[in-house]
C-alpha cells in the first residue's frame, strides 16, 4: 500500500545527499584518485619508469631530507614557542590578554611568502630599517635568512600561533579542581605545571605538533623565498622548479614527488587523528578554568616579554615591509626625501599583471568563500544531524584537500584538467578556472568546521519543530538551519577570503598569463629583484587582512567560541 | 482532529527493541499520557508517531490514514501532527508572531488570514500583544505557551507533548498542568502526552499507557491503574504500591476472592475468573494497612520518617524479611527503628498472573 508523500520525501532528501556527495567527491576524491592513477599508470599506461626516475634522482632525496629537516626543525620551534606562550597567557595573571592574542595570531593569517618577504626586508643589507638605525651590513653581504636556519626560524614563527591556539583551547578546558588538588597536595607551581598540566595537555600538544608538521613540510612560500636563492630545495620547491622548467611533460614525475610529500604529511595527519580520538569535543566543562597563578613582581617582566614577542614576530617584519615599500629603489636609504608612494602607484595602476592579480585574487577569494558558505551548510547538516556511517567519510573527504600540502592538490588538479574533460569537453587548463577549482576544494573545510561546531551547539528539535510545522527540507535549511549557523559559517567565509586572497602554493603551479594571483605577483616581483614592488603588494594584502579581522570582530559575539582564531 | 491507532508497532535499534509490539487505540479528542521510567521507549514511540523514526513492523494510523508502515512513512512535514517539545524549540531568530505563524507561511496562507490566526492563537494562550517579542525575552511559562500557540495555530490532527514540564520548576509545573488541561478542554484535540511523572499523568490524562522496556504494559484510566494494576511493574510504579506474595484460597465471586497473605486471611479484590493458586501476588496500598492494636501480621520497623502530623514507617514482615512494607502512622503514635509492631491488611488487589491479561 503506497503512502502518499513518502516518495516525495525520499526524493528531496536523496537529491540533497546526492548533490552534496557529488560535489565533495568532485573536489576531493576525484583529484586524489587521478593523482594515484597517474602514479600507477603514468600517461595512461602501466609503467614504473617515472616513479623510478623520480625516486632514483639524488635531487629527490636531497629535497626529501631538506623537507624533513625544516619540517622537524620548524615544528619543534613552533611547538616550544606556541606552548610556552599558551602557558604564559592561560595560566598567569598577565594583563592585556585580548590584544596580545589578536596580535600574536596575526602571522598565521599573513601569507607565508609575505612573512618571508617581510623578514628578508628586515635583515637584508638593503634593509631600510637597519639603515634607519645605522646597523645595515655593507651591500653585497649575504642575507642571513637565506639558510636552513632562516627557513626553520620563519616556519617556527609562522606556525607557533597554530600551536598556541590548540594548546590554549586545551588549557581552557582544564578543570581547576585538578590544579587546586595538586597545589593542596603541597606541590609548587612549577611542579604542578610539570606533573599535572603538561601531561594533561599532551593530546593537545601532540595534535598541534602534527598539524604544525603538516603545515611546515607543505609550506611553499617560505622555502621558495629563502631557499631557492640559496639553492636549498625542499619537495614543494623542487616540484615547482621541475614543473616550471619541464612543463606538462614532467607531470608524471612530479606526481610521484607530490605523493612523497603527501605521504610525509599523512604520517602527521594520522598522528593527529590518533590524538584527536582521545578528546571528547562535546565536553562543556561544568567546572571553571583554573585561577591564574599570580606572578607578583615578575608580572611586568612577563608582560614586557609578551609584547617583545609581538614586536619581534609582527611589528618589526611588517615595519620592514612597509619601509621597503616606501623607498624608490633597492638599497636606497629611507629619508624624508626618498619616501615615495610610487611603488604603490606602479603596482596598482601601471603594472598590468599586478592590476589583473588584484582583480583575479579578489574574485577568486570571493567566489571560493561564497561557494564554501553555500555548500558548508547542507554538508554540515548531513554530517551532524543526519549521521550515518558514510557521513564521517564525507567529512574526511572534505578535510583531505586542506590537510594535504597544497602542492599535492595543485598537481592533482593539473592532471585532472590537462586534457579537456571527456564527455562534457570542459577545458580549464591554463585558465583562472582551474585555480578556482583548486581553491574551492582546498578551502571548503574552513567554512565547514565552524558550521559543524555551530550546529553542535544548536538543539536539533529546532529543526524538528519546523518539520512538524510542514516545512520541507530545503525550506528548513533556508529558514531555520542557515539563519542559526550563519554567523559561524560566514566567519568561516571571511577566513577563506583572507587565506585565498594572498595564496601562493596552489596558484604558483596553476597560474598562466592572464590568471595571475596576488601571491604569484609578489613571488615574481621578488624573483625578478623588484623587492620594493613585492613589498608594496604585500603591504596591501596585510592591510586587507587587518581590516577584515577588525570588521569580523564586530559580529564576534554571535559566534561560537573558537571560530575566530584571533579572538580570545 | 483525529484518533490514533497503533498496530503492533515495533522499532529496533541494532538488536535492542526500543518499542516492541505496541498496540493502542486512542479515540478522537482523548487525552492520553504515555508513562514509564526513562529508557522505556516512550520517547521513541512519540518520534514514531511524529514520523522522525521509521518503524520495523506494524502500522501507525492517524485519522484513518496509514502514516507509517514498514519501509514506508509519510514524512513529519506532511503528517499535520503538532509537537510541544521539552525545551520548547522556539526559533531564536524569529519573533513570537513569526514562530507561531511559521506553519501558516509554509502552507502559503495569505498574509491577512495568517495574521488573524496568529493573533487568535496568541489570544488563546493569553499572550495578546507579545507578537513582536523575541523568545529570549520571555519567561519559561510564556515560552511554553508560545510553543502551545505555535502548535495549535495550524489545527493539527494530533498534538504530541514530549515531557513538556520536565524543565520547569515545581510552582510553574502546577500552573502549566492547569494550562494544559484548559488547552485540551478548549480545543478538544487528541493529545498524546509523554511523561515519566505519574502524578502529572494521573492529573491530566483520560487514559494512561504504562510502558516498560519497550512494551505497553497497561492502557487504562488512572483510577483503574491505581486500583487494578495489571502487572507487578504497574503496581509498584504507580503510587509506590507494595507487591506481596500470597495464596489465593477461593475462586473469584463478584470480583473478590479469599487470600492468605503473610499469614493473614482476608477477602481481596481480583480480576474476573481468578482461580485458586498457591503462587500469586497482591498489590497493597499504604492506606490499606492499619497499624496498632494486635493485627495478625508481625513486622520489624526498619526506618521511620517523620512527615509532619504522622510518620511513614518502612518495615519488613517477620514471617518473610524479603517483603518490604510501608504505611502511614498518625501522630501521636510512634515506632522507632528496630521496634516490632503488628498490622493488618484491610484490602488489596490480586495481580493477575502474567499472560492472563
Q: Provide the succession of SSEs of chain A.
A: HHHHHHHHHHHHHHHHHHHHHHH
Task: Tell me the overall shape of chain B.
Answer: elongated
Q: What percent of residues of chain A adopt helix (DSSP H or I)? A: over 70%
The low-confidence parts of chain A are 280-286
Shape of chain A: globular
Number of beta-strand segments of chain A: 0
Helices of chain B, by number, come to 8
CATH superfamily of the largest domain in chain A: MetI-like
Spell out the helices and strands of chain B N to C. EEEHEEEEHHHEHEHEEHHEEEEEEEEEE
- What is the CATH topology assignment of the largest domain in chain A? MetI-like fold
The helix tally of chain A amounts to 23
Name the largest protein-protein interface in this structure.
A-B, 25 and 32 residues
Supply database-style keywords.
heterodimer, A: 568 residues, mainly alpha, MetI-like fold, 23 helices, globular, B: 357 residues, alpha+beta, Rossmann fold, six-stranded mixed β-sheet, elongated
Descriptive overview:
The complex is a heterodimer of chains A (568) and B (357). Chain A is 73% helix and 0% strand. By secondary structure, chain A is an all-alpha fold. In chain A, α1 crosses α17 (406-417) and α16 (391-403) packs across α18 (432-456). Chain A is globular and about 75 Å long. Chain B is α+β, with helices and mostly antiparallel strands and 357 residues long. Chain B has two domains: 4-227, P-loop containing nucleotide triphosphate hydrolases (Rossmann fold); 241-347, no CATH class. Chain B has helices spanning 42-50, 96-106, 111-124, 140-152, 170-187, 198-204, 222-227, 232-237; strands at 4-13, 16-26, 31-35, 57-62, 65-69, 72-73, 81-84, 158-162, 191-195, 207-212, 215-220, 242-248, 256-261, 264-269, 277-284, 289-291, 297-306, 310-317, 324-330, 340-345, 349-351. In chain B, a hairpin with a 7-residue loop joins β12 (242-248) and β13. The longest helix of chain B is centred in the middle third of the chain and has 18 residues, at 170-187. Chain B starts with a strand and ends in a 6-residue tail after the last strand.
Amino acid at each position: 500500500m503506497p503512502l502518499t508523500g513518502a516518495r516525495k520525501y525520499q526524493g528531496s532528501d536523496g537529491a540533497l545527499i546526492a548533490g552534496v556527495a557529488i560535489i565533495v567527491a568532485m573536489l576531493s576524491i576525484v583529484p586524489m584518485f587521478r593523482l594515484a592513477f597517474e602514479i600507477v599508470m603514468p600517461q595512461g599506461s602501466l609503467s614504473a619508469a617515472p616513479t623510478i626516475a623520480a625516486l632514483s634522482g639524488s635531487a629527490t632525496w636531497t629535497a626529501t631530507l631538506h623537507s624533513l629537516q625544516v619540517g622537524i626543525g620548524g615544528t619543534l620551534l613552533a611547538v616550544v614557542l606556541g606552548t610556552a606562550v599558551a602557558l604564559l597567557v592561560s595560566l598567569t595573571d598577565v594583563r592585556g590578554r585580548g590584544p596580545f592574542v589578536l596580535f600574536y595570531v596575526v602571522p598565521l593569517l599573513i601569507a607565508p611568502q609575505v612573512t618571508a618577504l617581510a623578514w628578508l626586508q628586515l635583515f637584508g643589507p638593503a634593509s631600510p630599517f637597519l639603515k634607519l638605525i645605522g646597523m645595515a651590513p655593507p651591500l653585497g653581504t649575504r642575507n642571513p635568512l637565506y639558510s636552513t636556519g632562516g627557513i626553520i626560524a620563519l616556519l617556527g614563527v609562522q606556525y607557533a600561533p597554530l600551536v598556541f591556539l590548540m594548546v590554549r583551547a586545551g588549557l581552557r578546558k582544564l578543570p581547576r579542581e585538578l590544579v587546586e588538588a595538586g597545589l593542596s597536595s603541597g606541590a609548587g607551581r612549577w611542579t604542578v605545571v610539570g606533573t599535572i598540566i603538561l601531561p594533561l595537555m599532551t593530546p593537545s600538544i601532540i595534535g598541534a605538533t602534527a598539524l604544525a608538521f603538516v603545515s611546515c613540510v607543505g609550506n611553499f612560500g617560505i622555502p621558495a623565498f629563502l631557499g631557492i636563492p640559496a639553492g636549498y630545495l625542499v619537495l614543494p620547491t623542487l616540484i615547482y622548479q621541475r614543473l616550471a622548467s619541464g612543463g606538462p611533460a614532467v607531470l608524471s614525475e612530479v606526481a610521484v614527488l607530490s605523493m612523497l610529500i603527501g605521504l610525509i604529511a599523512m604520517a602527521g595527519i594520522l598522528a593527529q587523528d590518533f590524538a584527536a580520538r582521545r578528546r571528547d569535543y562535546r565536553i562543556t566543562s561544568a567546572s571553571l578554568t583554573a585561577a591564574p597563578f599570580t606572578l607578583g613582581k615578575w608580572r611586568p617582566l612577563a608582560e614586557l616579554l609578551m609584547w617583545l614577542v609581538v614586536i619581534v614576530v609582527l611589528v618589526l617584519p611588517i615595519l620592514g615591509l612597509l619601509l621597503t615599500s616606501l623607498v624608490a629603489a633597492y638599497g636606497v636609504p629611507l629619508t624624508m626625501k626618498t619616501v615615495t608612494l610610487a611603488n604603490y602607484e606602479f603596482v596598482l595602476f601601471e603594472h598590468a599583471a599586478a592590476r589583473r592579480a588584484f582583480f583575479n585574487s579578489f574574485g577568486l577569494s570571493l567566489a571560493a568563500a561564497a561557494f564554501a558558505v553555500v555548500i558548508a551548510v547542507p554538508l554540515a547538516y548531513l554530517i551532524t544531524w543526519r549521521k550515518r556511517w558514510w557521513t564521517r567519510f564525507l567529512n574526511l573527504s572534505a578535510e583531505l584537500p586542506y590537510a594535504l600540502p597544497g602542492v599535492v592538490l595543485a598537481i592533482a588538479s593539473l592532471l585532472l584538467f590537462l586534457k579537456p574533460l571527456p564527455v562534457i569537453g570542459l577545458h580549464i587548463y591554463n585558465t583562472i578556472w582551474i585555480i578556482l577549482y583548486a581553491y574551492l576544494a582546498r578551502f571548503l573545510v574552513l567554512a565547514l568546521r565552524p558550521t559543524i561546531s555551530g550546529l553542535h551547539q544548536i538543539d536539533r528539535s529546532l529543526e524538528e519543530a519546523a518539520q512538524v510545522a510542514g516545512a520541507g527540507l530545503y525550506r528548513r535549511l533556508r529558514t531555520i538551519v542557515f539563519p542559526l549557523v550563519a554567523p559561524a559559517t560566514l566567519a568561516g567565509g571571511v577566513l577563506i577570503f583572507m587565506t585565498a586572497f594572498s595564496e601562493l602554493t596552489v596558484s604558483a603551479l596553476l597560474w598562466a598569463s592572464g590568471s595571475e594571483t596576488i601571491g604569484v605577483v609578489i613571488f615574481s616581483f621578488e624573483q625578478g629583484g623588484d623587492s620594493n614592488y613585492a613589498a608594496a603588494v604585500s603591504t596591501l594584502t596585510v592591510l586587507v587582512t587587518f581590516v577584515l579581522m577588525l570588521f569580523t570582530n564586530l559580529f564576534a559575539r554571535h559566534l561560537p567560541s573558537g571560530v575566530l582564531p584571533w579572538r580570545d | 482532529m483525529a484518533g490514533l491507532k497503533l498496530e503492533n508497532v515495533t522499532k529496533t535499534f541494532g538488536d535492542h527493541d526500543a518499542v516492541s509490539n505496541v498496540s493502542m487505540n486512542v479515540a478522537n479528542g482523548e487525552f492520553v499520557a504515555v508513562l514509564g521510567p526513562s529508557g522505556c521507549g516512550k520517547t521513541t514511540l512519540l518520534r514514531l508517531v511524529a514520523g522522525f523514526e521509521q518503524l520495523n513492523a506494524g502500522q501507525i494510523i492517524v485519522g484513518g490514514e496509514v502514516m507509517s508502515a514498514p519501509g514506508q512513512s509519510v514524512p513529519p512535514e506532511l503528517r499535520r501532527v503538532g509537537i510541544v517539545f521539552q525545551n520548547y524549540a522556539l526559533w531564536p531568530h524569529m519573533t513570537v508572531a513569526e514562530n507561531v505563524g511559521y506553519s501558516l507561511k509554509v502552507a502559503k496562507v495569505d498574509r491577512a488570514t495568517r495574521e488573524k490566526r496568529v493573533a487568535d492563537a496568541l489570544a488563546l494562550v493569553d499572550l495578546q500583544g507579545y507578537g513582536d517579542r523575541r523568545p529570549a525575552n520571555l519567561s519559561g511559562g510564556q515560552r511554553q505557551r508560545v510553543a502551545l500557540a505555535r502548535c495549535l495555530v495550524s489545527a493539527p490532527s494530533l498534538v504530541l507533548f514530549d515531557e513538556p514540564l520536565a524543565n520547569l520548576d515545581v510552582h510553574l509545573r502546577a500552573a502549566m498542568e492547569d494550562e494544559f488541561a484548559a488547552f485540551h478542554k478548549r480545543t478538544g484535540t487528541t493529545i498524546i502526552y509523554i511523561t515519566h511523572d505519574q502524578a502529572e499523568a494521573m492529573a491530566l490524562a483520560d487514559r494512561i499507557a504504562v510502558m516498560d522496556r519497550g512494551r505497553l504494559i497497561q492502557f487504562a484510566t488512572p483510577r483503574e491503574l491505581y486500583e487494578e494494576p495489571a502487572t507487578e511493574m504497574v503496581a509498584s510504579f504507580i503510587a509506590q504500591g507494595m507487591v506481596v506474595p500470597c495464596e489465593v484460597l477461593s475462586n473469584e465471586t463478584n470480583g473478590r476472592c479469599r487470600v492468605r497473605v503473610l499469614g493473614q486471611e482476608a477477602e481481596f479484590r481480583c480480576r474476573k475468573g481468578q482461580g485458586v493458586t498457591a503462587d500469586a501476588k497482591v498489590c497493597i496500598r499504604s492506606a490499606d494497612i492499619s497499624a496498632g492494636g494486635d493485627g495478625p501480621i508481625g513486622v520489624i520497623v526498619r526506618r521511620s520518617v517523620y512527615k509532619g502530623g504522622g510518620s511513614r514507617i518502612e518495615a519488613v514482615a517477620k514471617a518473610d524479611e524479603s517483603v518490604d512494607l510501608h504505611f502511614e502512622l498518625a501522630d501521636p503514635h510512634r515506632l522507632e527503628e528496630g521496634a516490632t509492631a503488628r498490622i493488618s491488611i484491610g484490602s488489596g488487589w490480586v495481580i493477575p498472573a502474567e499472560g492472563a491479561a
